[in-house]
Amino acid sequence: MYPVDLPALVDTDLTSASEEYLSSLESRPDDNEWFQLSQTSKVAITANHVRRLQLFEDDQPDCPLLALHPPDDPTQVVALYLHENWWHVDDVLRTSSNSRIGLISVQSLTERVIVFLLSQVVERSSQEKVLFSLHRRTESCKLLWRDGQAVGFYTIKHKGSLCDGWSGRCYLLPALDTVLVRRSWRRRGLGLQMLADFCSSFSAEQFLGVSSPLSPSMVAVCRSFLQRHEEHLEHLYEVEAPGGWTQRRNIWLSIQLGINEESTPTSGETQRYEDDSSQKTYNCRVDPTSLTPCNVNTYPAIGSSVQQMKACDPSRGGSSPSSKISGTGCSPAAYADDLDSGPPTRPPPSLNTERTLKSNPSPSADSHGEKPEEGTQSSAKRVRRT
User: Fold this and answer.
1) CB proximity list for 169: less than 8 A, separation 6 or greater
2) Element (H, E) at 369
3) What is the pTM for the complete model shown?
4) pLDDT, tens digit, for every residue of 302-316?
5) What mean pLDDT value characterizes the chain?
């Protein structure tokens, strides 16, 4: 059996066991145990080779995790101390239960340790930065199990949950926040599986979000998903917290206009979508002087935007009437006004969009056509939330 198959751990039990074991190591420095890494290598279990890892972002009360590292590389983790034993990292990610298959909601502390390993440890070399900032103790997430091992996960920001611990704002729609697929399991449609699972889990919601901006790999997943599920064309948005209409952009429309291909992170900390090595950032920009209530459900009238977006799809033989103007969109609904000013409306159906755009370029063309500054793409943290 593996740690995840053993009786569930409790935070206090893990903390007390870890502290007691570390104290015992410090009291017997000359009586070394050894951890066998392979048939040819082993690591001495000494206080100098053990360090505490912070498991959660909001680590109050403290919940340390003991990690064993080789003497020449303190940033590398080769084993964890769980259930009063040292376990190889690969074994912590395994299960002997045949019932663990597919996407399963994270419930136990050991499952949260697995999410921690995937996001902080196993998918980076000693030279790489951490992929994610730490998740909350109560983060809503699902682990993806295949062939008796955890191969990925995704996390969710629920509608009504707080964006952070200081602004008082909360999410106005469910948002797919972070996604990871292990390198050895990529290119198998697992990212598509997780996006489909997210959407089906909130089928009663009219609008769903994916944290902004999207990486090229996430754009490819969204494109494939929306081509198969056209019923979501008008309902899946790229969002920044808390997800008001000025912080949403229709993903399908952006794909047709190539907006996502041009966008790069501008500020804030980053997170990664890991169906390949690409990165995406999540920037929670909020104005503490103008709080938005959690129950705002107003949205712009997008009406026939599916037809508008389909007309922009080169694969259907059409082109956007505004495609000659950099940064403009097929439908103004993609860039809506502020919630406080009321829901925006579409232009009348009889309006000749091409003629209008050519004679009176949209004032938002320049602002949406500009490329953000590069520089945070290589960063690898999400925005901190408490």
Assistant:
1) 162, 163, 241, 242, 286, 291, 292
2) helix 364-369
3) 0.69
4) 444 444 444 444 444
5) 74
